[in-house]
Amino acid sequence: MYGEYGYMEEGELGKPYNLRLLRRLLPFARPYGRIILWALLLTLAVTALDLAPPYLSKVAIDRYILASWYRIELERPNLPEPEFHARLIEPGENSRFGLISGDSLESLDPRTVYRLREAGALSPERYYRVPAERAAALGDADRSGRAFVLEGGGLAVPLDVLNRLDPSDLARIRHEDLRGVAGIGMLILVILALAFAFGYVQHVLLEKTGQFIMHDIRLRLFERMQGQAMRFFDRHPVGRLVTRATNDIENLNELFKSVLVTVFKDLFLLLGIVVILLALNWKLALVCFALLPLIFGFTLLFSTMAREAFRELRQKIAKLNAFLQERITGMRIIQLFAREAEQMRAFAAINHENYLAGIKQIRIFAVFMPLMELLASFAVALLLWYGGGQVLREQLSLGSLVAFVSYMQMFFKPIRDLSEKYNIMQAAMASTERIFEFMDHPEEETPDPEETERPARLTGALEFRDVTFGYQTEQPVLRNISFRVQPGEMIALVGPTGSGKTTLIHLVERLYEAGQGEILVDGVEVRRWPREILRKRIGLVMQDVFLFAGTLYDNIALGRQEVSDADVERSLREANAHHFVGRLRKGLYHEIGEGGATLSVGERQLLSFARALAGDPGVLILDEATSSVDPETERLIQEAITRISRRRTTIVVAHRLSTIREADRILVMQSGRIREKGTHEELMALGGIYERLNRLRAGQEEPA
Predict the structure, then answer these.
(1) pLDDT tens for residues 389-410?
(2) Which of 235, 381, 417, 619 is the most buried (most CB within 10 A)?
(3) Start-to-end CA span in the chain (Å)
(4) Domain span holding position 563
(5) Which residues, other chains included, contact 222 with Cβ-Cβ below 8 Å and sequence gap of 6+?
(6) Does some domain include residue 497?
(7) Based on C-alpha coordinates, what's the Rg of the chain?
């Protein structure tokens, strides 16, 4: 159902299925599939680069900054299997002792480490391995004799001994560590630079792809609008249609950027973090993942609430746009009848509905965002409690704990990003739903048949055969209409308001399709004519003239390739419009505003007349063309009608005697039927409906 202002009511299409809508977008994205693929590959590369710095920080801390080893007694009977020695232990010169690094110790089963400590095979103090070429820098720092020589000639020195050295000596001893830290720092800078470059290219590719796709959808949407039957525009306000082609399309553009940039990158990032955490320490990772069910539960609840909130918000925006478009267009009427206060109250009510819908959406985010921050902080606290205990028990390195904290903060960042952009995504999905709901609308014009008939030239013969039509099937506007118009004949249609005169004209132009009966043009049923050819050969001048912003020439030619400059000049002379055009400073290239507001009513009507004649139509239809013009313009139009009706079929819908007196025949309509036929003199002599209408217009009889 559509409300008063044409917005979509809740539940019209039911719950929006995002995957279904995304599948509908695939045909538009398929031509740019290669660009999207490259963008996704770059997204994957950027994600991998983003995951590298925390791990490199762990390596820098454990391998270089806090490089530490533990002394292990190699002659203990409860040591692990023999290959344990070769893989993890650097033996000392005295085969009784060796060194095992903190990284190696972390990779062992905690039960093995516990047995080694209980047996006294693993020293509680930590050592630093000094290369043989830098051992001289130690001097006599080790007076306790706890240092020992390694098999390769290096020294294993307790850390407390090393920390008592002069800073310059310490720097010489830890030269390799300083180089390692600097190398990792430079590597991180290179990674950040590559991530920036790849991210830039990825963003440009996706933005360009989004613009291409929006360009195609907007063209398709406008083409769809132009293909709709007139009854569609009778039911849908202009503001709603403009919203489809502007706001909704722009929201759809945001969908591509949000989904392809945010969702895919964040999914890759989440997956990468899970894999790395499990590889670093699966037990600690499982402790962190204990919060995941709670996080996903809240996210699912939020997505459901946010979806409904955004659908409601989009409905209110469409309603607001439709109201504004209608009131701005009719501002003259509002001011003429001094209804500003009433319209202000109506607008305030609609604006308040939009405000409430926006507040509802804000409240949902006001709960969700702090909740995500709280869960992220709780996860870090849990990590520090459990992981910090493992570090103190020397079952986890400090670098691993720092990496865990960094990755967990990164883990919540994609979730926060998704929640922050969820409003964009939901607005885009709501707009997508509305766009495709419009594209699927069934009220499209009846397509031309595959086999059409195209007479070389329109002679102007027109025939109605028992035609019945209603805008609503149960309420016919025309009933059993039958008449014939000969080529070159001028007929007039008269009758009271609502008798069906304009509807009959619309059927000739195929703006609407007749429900029953046949309409023949030059002996060919009107549905057999290609719609484009038919409308080129039948000129229509309406009572309500619409002019586009631009020049007078543009409004007469309307971009028709078959209309030349000579045709425009000829049509101006035939319509008696060349006099006022010649008075303008730029003539045909005079600029007019929207709707031709700078021209008088009569001037707009003369331009409309010239526009219809520019294509040299075989049939000319005038629908109340003189009803709202001044006497001088009416005289000019009447002269033009008398002149041009001699060489083409002319149908005139009018009330004024001056316009219809010269007609070859007059058809009098009432309640959707033709009640009387004849010339002016014959109908006046008949003393029926026509005679009474003329006496009423002449003021000879007051209406009952």
Answers:
(1) 888 777 788 888 889 888 988 8
(2) 619
(3) 41
(4) 462-697
(5) 245
(6) yes
(7) 42
